Structures are given as C-alpha cells and as structure tokens.
Amino acid sequence: MRIFQFKQKSGKKITKFDSNFVMSRITQTKKAAHIGCMHLAEGGVIGYHQAVVPQLLLIVSGEGWVRGEAVLWDKHEWHETKTEAGLMAIVIESEELDTSLMMPL
C-alpha cells in the first residue's frame, strides 16, 4: 500500500486562459478506467477483499480507517475500508494507474 495526498499545496497554480486555480493531479491512464464515488454512512464498511485491478481511493470528506487522503492498492492486495462517522471517497480502478504525478505523503 502506498499513501498519497492531493491537497491544494501539492498542486500547481494554473493561470492559462485567465484562470486562477490549483490543479492537484491524480492519475493518467491509457487503458479503460472505472471511476466512481462511494458514500459510506455511519458504521459503513467495504468488506475485506482482494483488489481485482490496481485501485486508488481518494477520501473527499469524512474519515475512516485508511490514513491519509489517498491510498493505492495493487492488484490482488487484500484491503478493507471502514468508518464510524461516515465518509465520501472517489475510487479509480484500472489495469494501468500512473500515480507518478501525485505527491507522496
């Protein structure tokens, strides 16, 4: 398991086209990817299982048993996510995930 961050301070300021925002890159992929938003209520659980493909979990709000903002599980790595207070997370799953653009924690 590798832990990453996507905080504003790890991003790059974008001013092109009169823009004014910070972009924190997450991943690039050439192969198909599944991207979803998961909502776990209080006491929610994603059961213990092996990742079918590499899987990147980005905690958007709330907190759970995964430390940090983003965690990457490799293919076949056993993992589980639990929360007492609830959380929302973005999950990106693909045979090809390039996390080289993310900032390690």
CATH superfamily heading: Jelly Rolls
**H-E string:** EEEEEEEEEE
Q: Predict the CATH topology.
A: Jelly Rolls
Unreliable spans are none
Secondary structure category: mainly beta
What does the radius of gyration come to? 15 Å
Side-by-side strand order of the widest sheet = 4-9-6-7-1-10
Q: Helix fraction?
A: under 10%
The rough form would be described as globular
Intertermini distance: 12 Å
**Overall tally of domains:** 1
Beta-strand content = over 45%
Q: What's the CATH class label?
A: Mainly Beta
Mean pLDDT: 82
Provide the CATH architecture: Sandwich
- Give the beta-strand count: 10
Helix count?
Answer: 0
| Sheet of most strands | 6 strands, antiparallel
